[in-house]
Amino acid sequence: MKELKKHILKYFTSARVILFGFIIMIFLGAAVLSLPISSRTGEWTPFIDTLFTATSASCVTGLVVYDTATHWSVIGKIIIIAMIQCGGLGVVTMLTIFSRVTGKKIGLRDRATLQSALSTPQIGGIVRLTSFIFKGTIIIEMIGALVMFPVFLKDFGVMKGIYYSIFHSISAFCNAGFDLMGDVSEFSSVTMYQSDIAINVSIIMLILVGGLGFLVWQDIAEHKFRVSGYSTQTKVVLTMSLILILFPSVIFFFTEFKGLDFKTRLLSSVFQAVTPRTAGFNTADYSKFSDNGIAITIILMLIGGGSGSTAGGIKMSTVFILFATLFSVFKQDKEVAIYNRRIEPDIIKNAISVFILDIVLFIVGAMIISGIEGFSLKETMFESASAVATVGLTLGITPHLGVISKILLIIMMYIGRVGGITLIFAAVSPKKNGNARYPKDQIAVG
User: Fold this and answer.
1) Phi first, then psi: what are they for 337, rounded to 5°?
2) 149, 174, 315, 426: which could form a disulfide with 16 (CB 3.0–4.6 Å)?
């Protein structure tokens, strides 16, 4: 028995625990959503569609084959928002929080798994960080709900106003993009609030805070406004966030929303610059965007948010490291440095690997769906980027996809959330001769 237990523990590495944790949550959620009690009509929902929905919710994506408000019952919506919350914080994080509440001791192995899930550099203080994340999440989501409540109260009454405020606050903070506006207009997201300052600002801030990364939270909480004390990770994420908000907002303001009044034009520009990374809400119709606007949105989707956050994508720090490597080559520097800190070669290799994996998955997925469904490559590239970066934006083709395309998107959403590197580490055991040094050779590049 001890040998069996030892073998099982050896098999379930940190990466595999994360992978299987998401799989279990997805299939349990899909099973419950397929039941008649989960649909508004009281009928069974096809399992492929509930699997798609459960994956989208657990992987905080937001792509849907049914309008959330009109198809699902109250029970179905509660299941969806519960999966969004668990998926946003991470299965391992939620299990750790549950263990602490029930008084269960958290062992060294559990801490190592949690370290992997949160992308933290060290195992020390990991449980304390989890408590900080949970408390911070509850406070931020409550503030978001309170800001949105007066608007929803006016439009939907007290009970619906409370329900809508909580649902959309969780969905926005977890960068999920699920909404309940289908009762007004199906698949409309929050377009009816394009000019509403409270809804726009609250959702934008929830998306940004959720997408910064939990380590960035901790760093800012510790050092406050003393920027010099921030870690390199925090400086990179804040710099990239500013760039990715400012430049796309300016471009959208002058190209996509010319016919709107100034306030709506400004709100729409900023909202559409923020939501692709990787929230899935929209206040504008993307089918009316220019090709350049679609291209910029796809790039923003693929970049995503911060590492160890509720957001998906290649991640801002990954892109920053790639550009830093590029500039170091231009300057003929021997090493890559960011903010006067040397970046280790292993980190650069991981950044390159993540970038290549996601780009290949994005392109191949788009080509396959286009070939199967007959949609234009622009539409399928938008859909593919939205899935692999766990965004949830679409040009309207999701409900019209066949079974094979849905399965492909399910796989892409799953890989996008757990991470391609995590998946490979779980599937491939480390080689014993991994540190072997082979003879050098030269290969022409460029």
Assistant:
1) -130, 140
2) 426
CA distance 159 to 136: 25
Tokens encoding 272: 């559409």
Tell the burial category of 52 from Cβ atoms under 10 Å away from its Cβ (0-12, 13-18, 19+): buried
Which of 365, 426, 430 has its CA nearest to residue 117? 426
Task: Map residue 335 onto helix, strand or coil.
Answer: coil
The count of residues in the chain is 446
pLDDT at 119: 65
CA–CA dist 34, 16 (Å, integer): 27
CB 242 within 8 A of CB 222: no
SS3 39: strand
Q: Where are the beta strands (DSSP E) in 146-219?
A: none
Residue pointed to by tokens 């997201």 = 189
Q: Judge whether 106 and 115 are in contact, CB under 8 Å.
A: no
Place of tokens 């007290």: 158
Tell me how far apart the alpha carbons of residues 443 and 446 are, in angstroms, rounded to a whole number: 10
Q: What is the pLDDT of residues 99-158, one digit of tens each?
A: 665 566 666 666 666 666 666 666 666 777 788 888 899 999 999 999 999 999 999 999
Amino acid occupying residue 343: I
Residues 14, 12: Cα–Cα separation, whole Å:
7
Q: How far apart are CA 153 and CA 398, in angstroms?
A: 31
Q: Which two tokens stand for residue 389?
A: 């970066």
Q: What is the pTM of this model?
A: 0.90
Q: Measured between alpha carbons, how far apart are the two ends of the chain, in Å? A: 57
- The pair of three-digit structure tokens given for residue 259, joined into one six-digit string: 């016919």
Pairwise CA distance, residues 222 & 83, whole Å: 30
pLDDT tens per residue across span 37-79: 999 999 999 999 999 999 999 999 999 999 999 999 999 999 9
Tell me which residue has tokens 């939907």: 156
CA distance 31 to 47: 7
β-bridge partners, 342: 337
Handedness of CA 257, 259, 261, 262 (dihedral sign): positive
Q: What gap in Å lies between CA 278 and CA 301, rounded to an integer? A: 6
